[in-house]
Amino acid sequence: MSKSFRFAAAVFGGVLGAVLAAAPAGAQEQGFTPIPVIKGVKSLQAGLPAPDFTVKDLDGKPFSFGNERTQRAHLLVFWSIFCEPCREEMPVIQRISDEYKAAGSLGVLAVNMDGEPFVDGIKGFLRQYKYTVRVILDELDAKGEQFAIADPFQVAGTPVIYLVDAAGKIVASHLGRISEADLRAMITQMFAAK
Question: Which domain holds residue 75?
Answer without folding.
Answer: 3-20+35-192
